[in-house]
Amino acid sequence: MTAKEVLNTLLEFDKAGKICIGILVHHIIRNDIDEVKWILEKIENVPVVYYLHDFYTCCINPNLMKNDIQSCIDRDIPCKGCCYLGKKEEHLEKIQHFLRAFENRITFVAPAEYTKEHWIAFYPEYADKTIVISHQKAIGEYTGNKEAILSDEPLRLGFVGAQKQIKGWDIFKNVVAAVKDAGCNYDFYYFGNGSEKVDGVTPVEVDIATQGKDAMINNLKEKRISAVFLVCVWGETYSYTTYESNAANCFIFAMKSGGNIPYTVEKNGWGHVFSTEEELIAAVLSEHNLRNEINNWKIYAKPGAEEYRDNDDILKLFSKTNKAKISWMLSRNTLFERVKCGALNKMFVGTRLK
Predict the structure, then answer these.
(1) Is 149 domain-assigned?
(2) What is the pLDDT of residues 196-249, one digit of tens each?
(3) Are residue 90 and residue 225 in the same domain, yes or no?
(4) Contacts 24+ apart (CB under 8 A), 116-125
């Protein structure tokens, strides 16, 4: 939709008795920031909630990866030499102008404490306007897949999610290659809808659209997976697969650079966090020690959730007594606006990172 179409739609809703009580900005990646600002300026008298879906407010690279290779979320790596540096200053100037325009009525919502802490490091002036609301709520306990793996039984190890470098796919392939000649009693699996095939890895198709929202959990349970590789190399703001894996009582391998994943794993005692790929491979090659670690966790750790439900607490930030003042008259798009909207949408679909 173009900016005009958004406002036209709100006016139509208003005429139908459906009142706008607030604005939720989920993300602005690949959007024209000036146009988003223009839309919000036309919708007055209601709160603005900005969801910290990513780190696009901190850099033009929303994943905070220097040259798409090295995580720089901890700000311990200089921007010099990064391919994004040339556009960063102009981008941040627009972002900061955008945020300042609504700072008297804006609330920033982070999906996790990790995300909040790291975002505030970039924007300390908004610390008192930033809160945490998790995507999901844990309900009950699942006690299946908690038994120790017998010594003559293979450890079932799975990679969960997208086959992307930033998700740790290359690390997983390196682990599989290292194990190939080591004689370890492991069965490797891939859970997702990626097309790449790897020798020695059994693919398991997981598709939420056709199998339902609990597709990943159900597949992990069915295969009785011992442990999963959630070895992202960038600072994840939130990870559904972390909670899905724990809901199936799978031990989690995480990388220190993986953002909210290692934060959650360490905080809850859900697995093992590794500092380097070499450390991870060494641990996997030490089968006796790995079995002991996984079995001890299976036996003594708190069971995962029976289910996760969507968390609607974010709705509490809006009041039914609010009513937006929409400073706008119905208007048709120009040809340029329609073409621009189509181009931006095509670029977003083709280049989105998450």
Answers:
(1) no
(2) 999 999 999 999 889 988 999 999 999 999 999 999 998 899 899 999 999 999
(3) no
(4) 116/52, 118/55, 118/73, 118/74, 118/235, 118/259, 119/52, 119/55, 119/57, 119/58, 121/75, 122/55, 122/57, 122/58, 123/57, 123/99
The pLDDT value recorded for residue 285 is 98
One DSSP character per residue, 69-104 reads TEE-TTS-S-STT-TTHHHHHHHHHHHHHHHHHTTT
Pairing of β 70-71 and β 307-310: unpaired
Read off the pTM.
0.86
Do residues 322 and 302 share a domain?
no
Residue for token digits 């969801």? Answer: 51
The confidence band for 354, taking pLDDT boundaries of 50, 70 and 90, is: very low
Order across the sheet with 271-274: list the strands.
201-205, 186-192, 155-160, 227-230, 251-255, 271-274
Say whether both 249 and 337 belong to one domain. Answer: no
CB 304 within 8 Å of CB 249: yes
What is the share, in percent, of the chain residues with pLDDT greater than 70? 94
Asked if residue 349 has pLDDT above 60, the reply is no
Instruction: Report the distance separating Cα 354 and Cα 345, nearest Å.
Output: 15
Domain extent, residue 161, equals 155-309
In a domain, 297, yes or no: yes
In a domain, 121, yes or no: yes
Q: Which two tokens stand for residue 184?
A: 């370890």
Tell me the β-bridge partners of 24: 49
Per-residue pLDDT tens over the stretch 47-57: 999 999 999 99
Within a domain: 79: yes
What CATH number has the domain bearing residue 227? 3.40.50.2000
Pair 204, 282 in one domain? yes
Cα 306 to Cα 217: distance, rounded to the nearest angstrom = 10
- Name residues whose C-beta falls within 8 Å of residue 60's C-beta, 6 or more positions apart in sequence: 84, 87, 88, 91
C-beta separation of 220 from 248 below 8 A: yes
Find the length of the chain: 354
